[in-house]
């Protein structure tokens, strides 16, 4: 798991650009639905926040990306809310990112939907997403939107004190705690799994789904749910699989495994997608967990990818016209694949797995992806 500070150092190169204009990030991959975007917070009054140290209950911030079969109106939405964008701009400006870059990014979303009978009776499947340690969920906005465009409701979580910054609707800001020791990391993974389980239960409440997923005649059924995570979020995805038996399967994007899942495993489908040289041969946690995964499983390696290739960052640098000017040092964290191409690989493999798991039961799209992307090698 690469330290995010390494990424900051690499981004010194972005002094190449001094002016910023509004840039809309594209939807990438095979999906064809327009997507609505909402944000919400939930508080678990039955659980204290283990990182707050002041007796407060655990609160979680989330984004929901919902496919819209009947979009009436489109709009450009800010990529990040103001305080978060300012924080990220300041953070990266120290290393040369042009001032206002994150504030300038937008997403094309569906602003208004009408009821439609084009959905299946079971509704769209639900997918949870959890990102890397020290990384805002919002740095995966384009990825989550692109997965949702494939016909999935995607709920992306920020885990307070774990993410670098979490901005709540009431203006509350929580910045990252020092999570560095093995004990801290294992606590963070366990806390994330608890967060996911709590939100999963809350999404069984129709009043909540009516509020945040309007316009659909059929609500999502929780039994048709999977989970995807990047880095520490990949470890949390596996931990949540162990904790929530009704999750049907999961994806770990480049994350070292932590906690009981390494020795216990589980009996549902799981996909490992790693950057170049991130395999069972180089990650002992993957090697230890692999035999404990007793159902369908596959492992792929993406040649030319690095740890933060599995985020929006390569797409952002590409959309801003910066990527081909980056020096070799940046490849250590963002990889050497062009940003649109890398996002297409990630979204295509994730949605192909989700289609197999939650829709068709067929591996044809995974097989086609292997023909389309020579950069991806099946390891196991």
TrEMBL record:
Keywords: Hydrolase, Lipid degradation, Lipid metabolism, Signal. Its EC number is 3.1.1.47. InterPro entries: AB_hydrolase_fold (IPR029058). The keyword Transport does not apply. One of its GO terms (biological process) is lipid catabolic process. The keyword Lipid metabolism applies. It holds the Pfam family PAF-AH_p_II. It comes from the Eukaryota. It is an enzyme of class 3 (hydrolase). This is 1-alkyl-2-acetylglycerophosphocholine esterase. It comes from Neocucurbitaria cava. The lineage of its organism: Eukaryota, Fungi, Dikarya, Ascomycota, Pezizomycotina.
């Amino acid at each position: 798991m690469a330290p995010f500070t390494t990424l900051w150092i690499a981004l010194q190169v972005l002094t190449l650009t001094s002016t910023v204009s509004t840039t809309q990030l594209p939807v990438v991959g095979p999906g064809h639905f327009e997507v609505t975007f909402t944000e919400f917070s939930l508080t678990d009054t039955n659980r204290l926040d283990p990182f707050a140290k002041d007796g407060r209950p655990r609160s979680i911030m989330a984004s929901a990306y919902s496919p819209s079969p009947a979009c009436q109106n489109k709009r450009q939405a800010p990529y990040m809310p103001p305080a978060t964008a300012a924080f990220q701009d300041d953070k990266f400006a120290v290393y040369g990112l042009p001032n206002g870059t994150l504030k300038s990014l937008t997403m094309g979303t569906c602003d208004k939907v009408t009821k439609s009978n084009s959905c299946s009776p079971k509704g769209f499947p639900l997918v949870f997403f959890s990102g890397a340690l020290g990384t805002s969920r919002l740095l995966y906005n384009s990825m989550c939107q692109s997965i949702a465009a494939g016909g999935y409701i995607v709920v992306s979580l920020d885990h307070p004190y774990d993410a670098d910054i979490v901005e709540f609707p009431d203006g509350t800001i929580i910045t990252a705690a020092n999570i560095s020791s093995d004990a801290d990391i294992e606590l963070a993974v366990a806390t994330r799994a608890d967060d996911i389980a709590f939100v999963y239960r809350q999404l069984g409440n129709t009043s909540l789904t009516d509020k945040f997923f309007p316009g659909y005649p059929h609500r999502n059924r929780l039994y048709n749910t999977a989970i995807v995570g990047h880095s520490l979020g990949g470890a949390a995805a596996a931990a949540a699989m162990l904790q929530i038996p009704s999750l049907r399967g999961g994806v770990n994007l480049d994350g070292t495994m932590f906690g009981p899942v390494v020795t216990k495993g589980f009996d549902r489908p799981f996909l490992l997608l790693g950057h170049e040289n991130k395999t069972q041969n180089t990650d002992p946690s993957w090697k230890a967990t692999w035999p404990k995964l007793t159902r369908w499983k596959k492992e792929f390696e993406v040649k030319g990818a690095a740890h933060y290739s599995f985020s929006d960052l390569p797409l952002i640098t590409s959309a801003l016209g910066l990527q081909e000017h980056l020096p070799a040092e940046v490849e250590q964290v963002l990889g050497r694949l062009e940003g649109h191409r890398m996002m297409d690989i990630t979204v295509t493999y994730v949605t192909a797995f989700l289609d197999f798991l939650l829709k068709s039961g067929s591996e044809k799209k995974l097989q086609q992806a292997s023909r389309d992307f020579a950069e991806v090698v099946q390891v196991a």
